[in-house]
Write a structure and sequence with these properties.
Blueprint lengths: L1 H14 L4 H10 L9 H20 L1 H8 L6 H13 L27 H14 L8 H8 L7 E2 L3 H13 L7 H8 L2 E2 L9 H9 L8 H24 L1
Parallel strand pairs: 1-2
Length: about 240
């Protein structure tokens, strides 16, 4: 999987300019499941999957150091794994996302101002993400895992896209799929139960390589503007 991750990095990040977090998420989501039947193969896949997940999400410094090379050898990949197992990222050139947002009480840890929540709620309404019209308080309850009644998805792909964009711009934690599934806070567009981690992952994976729709463009523009605002604040506070 390391060679495959390297090849995809070269295509998407180096040549196409894809955002690193989106590249990492897409790769991880597309390798979560395995069709092996025997326990040994399943365990080996899970072990390799979680090693790669941790490498891509927690050691971006190593990934960029080795994957940015025009060619990478098996020996270099083994060196990267050795460094991954024996070192910690340098605070001088890399800040892990968890240092900015950490989950508490199993919520999405969205430390957003009311005006930004209102803007994001309006974004959901304009893009018709949910069947309900929501406001800032509804969105805050959803992000805090305190919904008294679940919202209803109009389009699971748009729901996944919205939360993924929030994660990409570091406005919520990266583990958003599991948190939403845990709280059973959004009913699937099919009406058959609430969205699970698997259904959210599948919806997100279906977006890959598709041209952005008008609704997705609304989400992308507004979330980007809010994300850039908070990035400027973080840079000012450094």
């Amino acid at each position: 999987m390391l060679h495959e991750a390297y090849d995809l990095y070269q295509v998407e990040v180096v040549n196409q300019g894809k955002i690193y977090q989106r590249y990492a998420d897409d790769f991880v989501y597309s390798h979560e499941f395995h069709d092996a039947i025997d326990a040994w193969s399943k365990n080996e896949h899970q072990k390799n999957y979680h090693i790669l997940y941790s490498l891509l999400t927690k050691r971006r410094d190593l990934v960029e150091q080795f994957f940015s090379k025009d060619n990478v050898s098996d020996a270099e990949l083994m060196e990267m794994l050795h460094l991954f197992n024996t070192t910690l990222p340098s605070s001088r050139n890399y800040v892990a996302p968890t240092k900015v947002r950490e989950a508490t009480d199993y919520n999405l840890c969205a430390c957003l101002e009311h005006s930004d929540l209102a803007l994001l709620a309006r974004c959901c309404n304009e893009a018709r993400v949910f069947s309900e019209i929501i406001d800032a308080d509804d969105l805050l309850s959803l992000l805090d895992g305190k919904m008294t009644m679940p919202l209803h998805s109009r389009n699971n792909r748009l729901v996944a896209f919205f939360f993924d964009q929030l994660s990409i711009y570091n406005l919520i934690i990266r583990n958003w799929q599991n948190v939403i599934a845990h709280h059973c806070s959004i009913v699937s567009s099919t009406g058959k139960g609430t969205l699970t981690q698997k259904s959210l992952s599948s919806a997100l994976y279906s977006i890959v390589d598709l041209e952005m729709s008008a609704q997705e463009k609304i989400i992308d523009d507004i979330v980007k503007s809010v994300g850039q605002k908070y990035q400027r604040k973080r840079n000012t506070n450094k």
